[in-house]
Amino acid sequence: xxxxxxxxxxxCDTICGATKARQDALARLAANAVVIAGDQASSNTRRLxxxxxxxxxxxxxxxxxxxxxxxxDAFGTAGLSAGTSTPDAxxxxxxxxxxxx
Length: 101
Known about the structure:
By secondary structure, the protein is of the alpha/beta class. The chain is 36% helix and 15% strand. The chain is built from three helices and three strands, in the order H-E-H-E-E-H. The longest helix has 12 residues, at 17-28. The mean pLDDT is 91.
């Protein structure tokens, strides 16, 4: 629609470097289960969930320690990723909870 007003417009379909790096690292993660720390409303967090599932991993989004799935222990090893806007304190809290299991 914008091109009607700006016919010389060039559209570059890209994502920021930090987001791309997280997506690539998640795809390489050697874990069958992954917790994505972040908010369900975040498109970045939901995209990470989709990538994990596309790679055949069981994955969940957790926006607090209380949202960690109870059956995650059955997987033995779980990976952790996070949306780019997820606060470091939340990532650290979820990491500590996973390590304490």
